[in-house]
Amino acid sequence: MRTMDNLLDKYKELENQEIYFAPPSKLNDPMEGLRNIFWCGDQIVWNNLFRHYVYCLHLTNVLSRFIGDTEAIKPHHIPIMSEIGDSWDTSSRKLLSDICDAIFSRAQLLDFTSKLATSNRKVRRNELLLYLRSFHAISLYEIENMYAVHGLSTRKPTPLSTKIDFSSMHDLLKALSLAREKQHDFDPFFTTTSLLVEENLLLQKRTPTSEKSIVAESNRQFIIYDFPRNYIERLEGLLYPDWYAACFFRSCNNSSIWANYGDHHRGACLIFATDDHSGEDTITLKRITGYSNKGPNWHFSPLKFYDVTYSAERDEIDFFRSLGQLPQKKAMEVWYTNADGTVSECGSYIHQNIDTWRGEYWTHYYPSIAAKTCDWEYEQESRLILYSLIGGLTEPEHRKLKYKFNSLRGIVFGIRASDSSKLKIINMIREKCRKENRPDFAFYQAYYNPQTGDIGTHKMSISLLN
Q1: In angstroms, how far is the first alpha carbon of the chain from the final one?
Q2: pTM exceeds 0.90, yes or no
Q3: CA within 20 to 30 Å of 259's CA: 12, 136, 147, 344, which one?
Q4: What is the pLDDT of residues 146-183, one digit of tens each?
Q5: How far is it, in rounded angstroms, from Cα 347 to Cα 337?
Q6: Predicted confidence (pLDDT) per residue in 226-235, tens digit
Q7: Coil, helix or strand for 446?
Q8: Per-position b or e across 226-238, b if 16+ CB within 10 A of its CB
Q9: Are 194 and 129 in contact (CB under 8 A)?
Q10: Residue environment code for 51-72, b if the CB has 16+ CB neighbours within 10 A, otherwise e
Q11: Following DSSP, what letter does each residue of 284-346 receive, concatenated?
């Protein structure tokens, strides 16, 4: 179901025979693609998580100093995929090493990661955020302090961080011990505490006093307040490739669907035929299949329809055992190995059962993408999923996939669709049918059916030969 702006003058989707694939952030349900991720592993991976956090915070903080008030720091600036490379000079490596030593030399942190490992808890997002909040202030303080030690800055450590030590982490350590001993479900406690912390931090944020300071203050607040939450959100990029969806409905007789997706009944619903490809419903679309020195290569290939499931439940995804977006060598070096060369049990699949792991890994990918809460069950939705292991889908133009005209079987006009829009579409379809020597195409008019109380469709008697 599309608006007339999408189909006609603004985006010309009908003329170009294109289906647009939207990112999750542009879909109606804010819960789209939410994965039930948990963190559970030995002390090696927990230590490496906190070390990775320090590394990302350090580089993002450096970036904020370089760009000053010229550009706003955004979540995608957090370098979760980067690593210490050969291009790093000796002084840069020494700075990062000193920062990590200053933070990790505190006994409470090592005790904390040890307790996390031995508790065998499935740590959820809010709980992890609470831990990182406690860790963040002291990390930022040590980072800025080490800049001064290395003669890179005269700026004093952030005032907020000087007020916080590891006492809050010590309290969390007690809670962890209690949760392990009593075997109680402490998830509600951690969730509520995390939400209260976020509420308190919100009230601490300052409003810029002038337009000139808006970007600078925004960047400052990103580093001090927003970084932990955005870091966790960015971590998901280590698991699976980004995805994009084109949504279809099995029926167009629901008024709410027309209101939500059809511009309050002023749009139109496109009817597509599916192909049977190895027993699965598909549609053939032209998409990027590779790259050459001339740019992306486009070819027609089938794309599968996935029926959306409606449930409050989500498949669990084990973060430390699902780092599928990282090369195996990088995953082993950054996440699964400690300074002594000991390998974490979480990374054993790389050398033992990689094929089995890969099969299980992909079984968790689609269910979370093709799942919505029960509130949306009335939609009866199926969707096409687009992703790429070679990248290149961030540009919207690369997510406009052409379909063959024969796949489009009909169009339903909304109750409030204007006559001028209808005539444009009818004339356009007539011309396409003439060029392809196609004698059949169905136009329908939607109307309110008082007998059934929903939206009915009337097949229009329109000749393609006029």
Answers
A1: 27
A2: no
A3: 12
A4: 998 998 876 666 554 434 444 555 566 566 566 555 55
A5: 9
A6: 999 999 999 9
A7: strand
A8: bbbbbbbebbbbb
A9: yes
A10: bbbbbbbbebbebbeeeeeeee
A11: EEEEEEEEETTEEEEEEEEEEEEEPEE-S---EEEGGG--TTS-HHHHHHHTSB-TT-PBPGG
Euclidean distance between CA atoms 284 and 407, whole angstroms: 8
Q: Among 138-142, 171-175, 321-325, which is the least confidently predicted range?
A: 171-175
pLDDT at residue 17 above 80?
yes
| Contact call for residues 168 and 106 (beta carbons, < 8 A) | no
Structure tokens at 120: 């065998």
Distance of CA 197 to the CA centre of its chain: 24
Beta strand 18-20 pairing with 400-403: antiparallel
Amino acid present at 425:
I
Measured between alpha carbons, how far is 337 from 349 in angstroms, rounded to an integer? 14
139/131 Cα distance (integer angstroms) = 12
Q: What's the sign of the alpha-carbon dihedral 30, 33, 36, 40?
A: negative
Q: Which two tokens stand for residue 187?
A: 């998830």
The per-type count for the chain, helices as H runs and strands as E runs, is 17, 15
Tokens for 251? 């029926």
pLDDT at residue number 185: 65
Q: CA-CA distance, 13 to 16, in Å (whole number)?
A: 5
Contact 118, 180 (CB under 8 A): yes
In this prediction, residues 351-366 reach a mean pLDDT of 89
